[in-house]
Amino acid sequence: MTDQSALKSVYPASAEFVAKAHVDAAGYEARYAASVKDPVAFWGEEAQRIDWIKPFTRVKDTSFAPGNISIKWFEDGLLNVSANCIDRHMLTRANQTAIIWEPDDPKEPAQHITYAQLLENTCRVANVLKAHGVTKGDRVVLYMPMIPEAAYAMLACTRIGAIHSVVFGGFSPDALANRVNDCEAKLVITADWAPRGGKKTGLKDNTDKAMLHCSDKVKVLVTKRTGDQTSWVEGRDFDLNAEMAAARPYCPYVEVGAEDPMFILYTSGSTGKPKGVVHTTGGYLVFASLTHQVTFDYHDGDVFWCTADVGWVTGHSYIVYGPLANGATTVMFEGVPTWPDAGRFWEVCAKHKVNQFYTAPTAIRSLMGLGAEWVEKHDLSSLKLLGSVGEPINPEAWSWYNTHVGKGKCPIVDTFWQTETGGHIITPIPGAIPQKPGSATKPFFGIRPEVLDAATGQVQTGTEAEGVLCLSDSWPGQMRTLWGDHQRFEEAYFSQYKGYYFTGDGCRRDADGYYWITGRVDDVINVSGHRMGTAEVESALVAHDAVAEAAVVGYPHDIKGQGIYAYVTLMKGVEPSDDLRKKLEAWVRHEIGPIAKPDLIQWAPGLPKTRSGKIMRRILRKIAENDFGSLGDTSTLADPAVVDDLIANRMNRG
Ligand code: WTA
């Protein structure tokens, strides 16, 4: 049993940790105060941590004013991301390991890729891209396993000023095609197969299917991972490994404007179509690099491991760009936490003497359920700090992580941020801010959080407050726009509360000024730390012939945080059955990917709607949560009897 009273305590870092930390309490207070008082001076100085080909003269030019959302940082500066992540380390770190690659199968050898090798491989990929006509500003989609080639390809794009968009390897061919088409990519880089957890996914096969829905001008570069056979379309498919071997080992980097787009990352929003979040070059790199160093208290020589996939923003900022900009050694792991056994994470930590370990609460919860003996088997004495990301970490998981993995001596940084924010925005800075389990604690430098009343938009001025989390000023890592749709950008983030960036999250601020994120207040759910738009799952369901209507909500799930609960109304004449339920699950996997598969499907003869036809999701959420005693006002429903049927046949009775 967890001692609940202990979880209410405050946990400062040890004196030993604080003594070595980059930032202590006084340092945090001073730098935070300076960062909000004079952002121009603060960021002008912090931006010196990266190399500029041409220094900027303007630091900040940002506006959250309605009708004029415009965000520019270091605008007239020129730089190159790959030069910052690789070339500038060559004098001092050419033979230092940049990437430790740990394959899915522990019997396969790990690879240690030095900065010198990273330079050569990145240059070779850059030359291959150039040979295929990719130039500055072109979009390149990456659909890859967690292999070093993914990092080479990302860095190669930045070297020539191309814009990458990484699509998570777990997404379906349809999802891939939509992204390729939305950003009008010239080229897709993929691999033959992606091994994961002892199984393999046919990435090339999926790409072939996706390409049926894309322009026939799109080329496909294929890297070999397993070497198993795939089909080949002459003239469209090219062998990346062969072309890299034949390419020149050096490629000069180009000058890129600080505000030129660096990458697009598609993420779920409250409407059906995923949003193409655009990050630009200078501000993003400054912010990723600073947060990586400060939040994780990264020191030269440390081995840093973020367990995310490069298909998510966490992988962008904290596997590739933040660590490499800082000259770090970063671990890239192809596998899963539970294969070949539930000790894999800890085996890898011991094997590579990991110093900072960063993962998601969902992984902790699933490992916790399998028993602490899997942790105890491995020597975790190298660990200095632990991190958490993706959702609030529940006290039980926090306590287990702290006791069994951190042995009570590692600070746990609960980092709150989003695809849109580029890097951590609310996070304990470990040597400075004592932790409270479940709280992301305090704002990072330059971040100005405000708690607004959700309904009135009133700024809550007291220290203790509850409402929605908004930010009142820009920071360098902020997204700049949605690809091809600046109006949607303004509507999605700036229209609800005028003059503020709205995170979409609810939050509470306690008497010590600590922030507690309470979860999304929009129609986005958080499944195993992955964002999923309920509207996306709904549109997938209604695309099936048997389905007339669907409504999807989240419900509490022990391991995943939230599970996906779908209410489905079938077409007239279609009979519900377990077989159909399985078919619909498979359909959603096929349409979006395995992460979107509904956990529970309830057959709904009707959905609760207002007389104007709007689905009352509040009621559906309550029923899915098995909390139907307090449904609130149902008098505006067109047909209140619908609700009784839904309650009687609810799927979650836990
Ligand atoms: C949630 C992942 C509480 C939140 C980096 C946010 C969190 C969404 C935390 C962004 C945390 C992320 N505590 N909630 N430490 N970190 N979230 O874009 O709801 O995949 O809005 O970025 O995850 O998810 P995204």
Automatic annotation (TrEMBL):
A GO MF label: acetate-CoA ligase activity
Highest taxon, organism lineage: Bacteria
Cofactor(s) the protein requires to work: Mg(2+)
UniProt binding sites for Mg(2+): 542, 544, 547
Domain AMP-dependent synthetase/ligase per the UniProt entry, residue ranges: 91-474
Catalytic activity annotation: acetate + ATP + CoA = acetyl-CoA + AMP + diphosphate
Alphabetical UniProt keywords: Acetylation, ATP-binding, Ligase, Magnesium, Metal-binding, Nucleotide-binding
Pfam families assigned: ACAS_N (PF16177), AMP-binding (PF00501), AMP-binding_C (PF13193)
Protein name: Acetyl-coenzyme A synthetase
Annotated source species: Tabrizicola soli
Originating gene: acs
